[in-house]
């Protein structure tokens, strides 16, 4: 593997660890007493540090090391998390993110880390400093708690026997220089030196893990010895690359000795209730690690294109085998169909990723913005397991950032305004994703003040976006859609939070470039909902082939609820629209022949029943009147190219086994 391949891997994995740290920090802010969360953060930070050091990014490794020092104090119950400490750690994470971005852009990953390092050092070693930016230092416990070692009965009995013989029990924590290349060798030298002084009855982590270098920069041993602390200290001081040796005699009055005389003397104390509540390393449930490899998305695109062609050929072969009525050929084609169906499922799933890859960056952003705006905000995320094509996932992030910022800044009222109108003090923003038909919908909703229709309309008239005559006939949704006009803004004051000189027109342009749509619903006093409709962009879909006149259309199977027959007596007219009763719901009827202006086929047969395909979009239903139904088939979605754009209710075309071209219907547009 070349260096650039390693670098790409490093950047990808660093981003994953950063995201994990951000997520866990947000959880820790809500549950500062939960030390298992700190352990998760520590693990990611430690991995990030090791990766950075191995790639030669020393600044990054040093900064992460300082953050790790603070987390180590927290996870050992020597430091209590406060808002000030959280802010410093978040600053550190932001800086690490910038450094990784710099590396990704071809830079050296260097940055001015002085201030953040100073603040981190001040937290884990407060004796060196007096204050953080004029503020009081976060308090570090004057006394520390000895690391809890889990001993079995045999080890306990050995300790009792040793005490009877006049031996002492020393708990020794060894810290190795993070830059040490072969830590296991240093650990071996420590074990050898300790073995000359007495008997090691326990180590944390285990000796096997230490030998395999499966430990952080420090480990702890329990030594039975008749030597004094000073002798033990002197023995270990002869080993190079040990940054600290902390010796604690396991008696209540004993005082540990550090090789760094300026270090705070740590006294053994009774285990605090917090430490008791903290899960031991053995009790922490390890996360399941899935085995995976990274594949260039372009290679998946090539694979998908080739497979699409295979599907078309399969359709032709199925047709030929049916016509030939050759048993062997039919059996072979059926076997090939089963194989390709399985293969298709695998390939499609390879491209699909959950939208939580985008959503998980927003809780942190909302937290920071809420602090800036001095608003109390609850972010509710729903449907993060909804899957979307990777290409769309990569592009949808920026529009969502804009909409969320907009909801925070313009949508939600200030705390005072909410209380004055009888609303809860905490505003609510909902980010939701769900499948409907052949589309994925993403909604950004807030329970704020809603959009002022008159204000939008007046602004549009003032800017000449619409005429007074047009304005008189616009529906609410059409008025709200004016917000997407270029440079349009109703904000009384430009802020850095939302807009920043860029309007919603940029969001709309981006969504449309992804073949999606965006719409707005708003109720004054109750909030607004921005709804984005995105195609799955899958090139192979399950579809129901139907006939309208002489033309064949494909309706995505996922958009169909049911196919039924409706007699003329069941159809009535409501507000000029043909409707019929479908179970407990009144469903309007749409003639596919009329929508696409299909030439009428003369026939002598007068049907008493109409064939109706019940299409759905969320909770809404629509009845599509068709001439006949051919059946279900997997079809390859082909783009209509640049010459046939914005066709109503058509999302693409496909080639059938007969060579005939069939248009693929986008039934969601029929609900607009």
Describe what is shown at a glance:
The protein has 672 residues and is of the alpha+beta class.
End-to-end CA span: 53 Å
What portion of the residues fall into strands of 2 or more residues? 15-25%
The assigned structural class equals alpha+beta
Helical percentage: 40-55%
Number of strand elements: 23
What profile does the largest beta sheet have?
6 strands, mixed
Uncertain regions spanning at least 5 consecutive residues: 129-145, 252-289
Shape: elongated
Please give the count of helices.
21
Strands in their spatial order, largest beta sheet? 15-19-20-18-17-16
Average pLDDT for all residues: 78
Q: What oligomeric assembly is this protein in?
A: single chain
Radius of gyration (CA) equals 33 Å
How would you characterize this protein structure?
This protein is an alpha+beta fold. It is 41% helix and 23% strand. The chain is built from 21 helices and 23 strands. The strands form 5 sheets. A 6-stranded mixed β-sheet has the order 15-19-20-18-17-16. A 5-stranded antiparallel β-sheet has the order 2-3-1-4-5, with helices on both faces. Strands 7-9-10-12-11 form a 5-stranded mixed β-sheet. A hairpin with a 3-residue loop joins strand 11 (517-523) and strand 12. Helix 3 (58-75) runs parallel beside helix 5 (114-124) and helix 14 (362-373) packs parallel to helix 15. The longest helix has 28 residues, at 3-30. Residues 129-145 and 252-289 have low confidence and may be disordered.
